[in-house]
Design a protein that fits this description.
Layout: E1 2-5, E2 11-15, E3 18-22, E4 42-44, H1 50-53, E5 63-66, H2 68-77, E6 85-87, E7 93-96, E8 99-105, E9 111-112, E10 115-119, E11 124-129, E12 143-146, H3 154-164, E13 168-172, H4 181-190, E14 195-199, H5 211-221, E15 226-227, E16 234-237
Parallel strand pairs: 3-4, 4-5, 5-6, 12-13, 13-14, 14-15
Antiparallel strand pairs: 1-2, 1-16, 2-3, 7-8, 8-11, 9-10, 11-12
């Protein structure tokens, strides 16, 4: 499994012969990549805020997978062909090429784009694995948890960690709109991962952080995890 961070919450996932892109937002200071340089087979959307769906319409050959509400919205407003969307929901696992994707809860809001009068259903995170995580034990899997925009929540300790068993987690750490470094460090322990990587930071002034705080929080709260700080457009192979 190869994971590439394009800044903010935008991640590329290469799994077997399948390529996925999560939360396409390339107007952030960490990336030099433009959407046209990428050709994912699948685009996953955690929720409808503009800094997570801004460039979803740039991937004409991709299937967009997200909640039914948000799938309908990007089809109507972003030029995504409705036939190229897959709607699923919290707790569901779908097979996308070589990847099994399970949608999990995120504690956040979900106003659509910049119009916060309308909602896109529940915000979410994704657990992406090379095996069905609800049927196969962790030692047989390579599994990535993209937490979406979330606060620290007991779902991590009660469901995501023990039952979906991620190996690597991308955790929001910018504070203000999501968890900060301390809560992200606790989350790394609760989901019981080997590697924890921060995301959703430094894109705007309110979410600028010192990533050393994230490293210290992981070291202090998740002794079984290693903090990994990626540069923008840098990849990590698990």
């Amino acid at each position: 499994m190869e994971l590439t961070w394009y800044g903010h919450s935008t991640w590329g996932v290469e799994l077997g012969e399948t390529s996925l892109l999560i939360d396409p937002f390339f107007d952030n200071p960490k990336t030099d990549v433009s959407p046209g340089e990428l050709d994912p087979e699948y685009v996953l959307l955690t929720h409808g805020h503009a800094d997570h769906i801004a460039h979803v319409g740039e991937f004409d050959d991709a299937t967009v997978a997200t909640t039914p509400e948000l799938a309908g919205y990007v089809a109507a407003e972003y030029g995504v062909d409705e036939d190229d969307t897959t709607g699923f929901n919290i707790g569901g696992t779908i097979e996308l090429g070589d990847a099994f994707v399970t949608m999990v809860r995120a504690d956040h809001t979900n106003g659509l784009d910049t119009d916060y009068q309308n909602t896109g259903g529940m915000p979410a995170g994704f657990v992406v694995s090379d095996t069905n995580p609800t049927k196969v034990a962790d030692e047989e899997s390579e599994t990535f948890y993209h937490a979406g925009d979330t606060a620290l929540m007991s779902e991590m300790k009660d469901v995501i960690g023990p039952y979906l068993e991620p190996d690597v987690a991308a955790l929001p750490a910018g504070d203000h709109f999501t968890m900060g470094p301390l809560q992200a460090g606790i989350a790394a322990d609760w989901v019981d991962v080997e590697y924890a990587m921060p995301m959703h930071y430094d894109s705007f002034p309110p979410i600028e952080i010192d990533t050393d705080d994230f490293v210290r929080a992981v070291d202090g709260n998740a002794p079984g995890a290693e903090a990994v700080i990626l540069d923008g457009d840098e990849s990590f192979e698990y």
